[in-house]
Amino acid sequence: MSWWTTVLGGAFGFMLGGPLGAMLGVAFAGNFSKGKSNFGGFAKDYHIGDQQRVQAAFFSSLFSVMGYIAKVDGKVSKAEILLAQQVMDHMQLADDMQKVARELFNQGKQKDFNLDEVLEQFRLESHRRTDLVRMFLEIQIQATYADGVLDDTEHDALKYIAQKLHFSLHELENLIQQFAVTSGHAGKLTIDDAYAVLGADKSLTDKELKRAYRRLLAQHHPDKLVAKGLPEEMMTIAKEKTQEIISAYELIKKQRGMR
What we know:
Blueprint: H1 3-8, H2 18-29, H3 51-71, H4 78-90, H5 95-109, H6 115-125, H7 130-144, H8 152-164, H9 169-184, H10 191-198, H11 206-219, H12 222-228, H13 235-256
Helix pairs in contact: 2-3, 2-5, 3-5, 3-6, 3-7, 4-5, 7-8, 7-9, 9-10, 10-13, 11-13, 12-13
C-alpha cells in the first residue's frame, strides 16, 4: 500500500515531523477537508523506517526542492511553472496528488524555505540509500532539463544539493551529461549517445561493459526502488530510465557484435 493511500484512509501516524512533516501537513491541510484525513492522529502504529514514511519524505522533499531550484535565479517564470506541471503529468499523478505537489513546490519557492534542513531530513529518512538519492537527483535534473537548458545557477544548486546528500559530485556530473544527451537528441540514439547513457567509456572490454550495464540496471530497477522508498506513483520514470539503459546497451551490443 502506498503512503498516499494510507493517508487518505485516515492514518497519518507516520507523520514525519521536522520541516518535511510541517510542509506536508500544510500542503494536505490546504487541499483536503479535516474529515478526509486524520492530521491530528499521531498514532504509534508506524515507526521510523516504514516504507510509507520514506515515500512521504521522498515526495515532500522532491517537489519542495524542485520549487527551490526553479526560484534559485531569483524569479520563477511561467515556463518553469509549466515545466514543473509537466513533470507531475509525466509521473501520472492523480489530481489530488498534483494539488499537494504544487503546494510543496510553492513552499520551496519561499524566501524562508530551509533547504539545508529539508535535505538533511530527507537524507536521514531515506537511510542514505544511494539508489534512492540518485533517483531524487535524476528527477531534479530532468525538471531543469525539461526546456533543454541547464544554466549555471541551476547547475550550482544541483551540486550543492548533491553535496548535502553526500552524493558523489563526479557521479552527479555523469548524470547531468546523460540527461544532456537524451534531451538533446530527437530520434534514435547514436553510438556516442549510448555510451553516455551508460556512463561508459568506449575502451571498456565487452565483459567490463556488461558489468557496468548490469550495475546501472540494478540501480534503476523500479521494484527495487519502490521497496527502498520510491513512491509507487513515480515508477513510470524509473521504468522509462530502465528502458533507456536497455536500448543503449542493445545498440552497443549490435555495434560491437556482442551476443
